[in-house]
Specification:
With 138 residues, this protein is mainly β. It is built from two helices and twelve strands, in the order E-E-E-E-E-E-H-E-E-E-E-H-E-E. The model has no long low-confidence stretch (mean pLDDT 91).
């Protein structure tokens, strides 16, 4: 499965005054829990330990978020987040697989995170920024 990197418009900054956008490996996915399904977008992130979703998605699927196993984590910037883990299925380009994913309130992004645990152990991931392409092999 091959996916083109997505342009995310961010505008210039003091450090990068000519910058208009950044390229990110963001792919379309479906979250499946019991008989409910939701389409969403996810960043394939080799720097993340976990598969993470905003809590609101889990609630829409009928998951009792806080009944999951709790983990407290923090990233490069920002305070620690409480994450609650649940088993569900993710579908990517017609391929379904089980994941143990975390759900958290106050995730400051418009997409999910596909990290090392549950995702990278299931697929071979090839990032190719030069071609602006991501390849995922089962």
């Amino acid at each position: 499965m091959k996916f083109k990197y997505r342009k995310i418009f961010v505008g210039p900054s003091l450090a990068f005054p000519q910058r208009e956008f950044v390229l990110r490996p963001i792919i379309p996915i479906s979250l499946i829990y019991k008989k409910k399904s939701l389409r969403y977008e996810a960043l394939v992130d080799s720097g993340s330990d976990y598969v993470l979703f905003p809590a609101e998605l889990g609630k829409k699927l009928g998951i009792d978020i806080e009944s999951g196993k709790k983990e407290s984590v923090s990233g490069v910037s920002g305070p620690a987040l409480n994450i609650y883990f649940h088993h569900l299925v993710i579908e990517i380009a017609g391929h379904k697989f089980k994941v143990y994913a975390g759900f958290a309130e106050n995730i400051n992004q418009n997409f999910a995170i596909l990290g090392q645990n549950s995702f990278f152990v299931t697929f071979i991931i090839n990032f190719n920024l030069k071609k602006k392409e991501l390849e995922i092999k089962p």
